[in-house]
Write a structure and sequence with these properties.
Layout lengths: L7 H24 L9 H29 L10 H30 L6 E2 L2 E2 L8 H36 L9
Antiparallel strand pairs: 1-2
The structure holds protoporphyrin IX containing FE (2 copies).
The site of one protoporphyrin IX containing FE has 24 residues, from helix 1, helix 2, helix 3 and helix 4.
Length: about 170
């Protein structure tokens, strides 16, 4: 029989990533406004963003692998179009949670600057390539915006379940 709720590991990953993603978006938007004045302030916050971004990239790979390996959670008993919308939105959330850190990482690879993971310098896999850096920066920005919009929709859907349908959806994810 399919489980009616998410297992503990999925729940922990869901809430841990939710907090980290929101912090990471706020940090990304804030740090790009820091002055390019030659001080190390901007570079050090960029390094913090890159490090946590890589942690998020690893976490989403782990989460996706687990989502494919664990027994499938039973779909909510709700209208077919809502079920399809929910599974489509969840797939898109996973795709964006993967696309955002990947575009950030490869954009940084082609920027020519060394990449540090919490202080540890990673091996340089490519040299500076401005056109690729610019394209990937654009993808990073647009995919991060799409992720934020989809998360807002996800929370609205949650509120609709909680306040209108009153079907205790949250019990499945706690
Ligand atoms: C960064 C923010 C968030 C992201 C990226 C996210 C992503 C996801 C994903 C991908 C799923 C599907 C899990 C799966 O089937 O493997 C899910 C389920 C769920 N999320 Fe979120 N979530 C976020 C924040 C929130 C918040 C703030 C709430 C509530 C206030 C919430 C409530 C839920 C609930 C109740 C489910 C279970 C839905 C079901 O039973 O089918 N999420 N979330
Ligand atoms: C889930 C993970 C991530 C999220 C949610 C995220 C989010 C953001 C956001 C919202 C911005 C500001 C966008 C703008 O207006 O330009 C930004 C900028 C940036 N992010 Fe990320 N990011 C993530 C992962 C990463 C990773 C893994 C790296 C590199 C290893 C990275 C490198 C950068 C850089 C260098 C910028 C400055 C703008 C640019 O040059 O593209 N990010 N990020």
């Amino acid at each position: 029989m399919q489980p009616a709720r998410y297992d503990r590991f999925s729940v922990v990953l869901h809430w841990l990533m939710a907090v980290l993603i929101m912090g990471q978006v706020a940090l990304g938007l804030w740090m790009i406004g820091l002055p390019k004045d030659g001080s190390s302030l901007r570079a050090s916050w960029f390094n913090v963003h890159k490090s946590w971004g890589m942690v998020l990239g690893l976490l989403v790979v782990l989460r996706l692998a687990w989502a494919l390996l664990r027994p499938r959670v039973a779909a909510l008993p709700q209208a077919r179009h809502l079920r399809l919308a929910a599974s489509g939105a969840h797939r898109l959330l996973y795709a964006l949670m993967l696309a955002v850190p990947l575009s950030g990482l490869f954009g940084s690879v082609f920027s020519g600057y060394p990449i540090r993971f919490f202080g540890m310098q990673l091996p340089k896999i490519a040299g500076r390539w401005d056109a690729a850096k610019e394209l990937l920066s654009g993808v990073h920005q647009v995919s991060a915006l799409a992720l934020v919009l989809l998360i807002a929709l996800h929370v609205l859907a949650f509120l609709y379940h909680q306040l209108v349908l009153k079907d205790a959806l949250l019990q499945r994810m706690r």
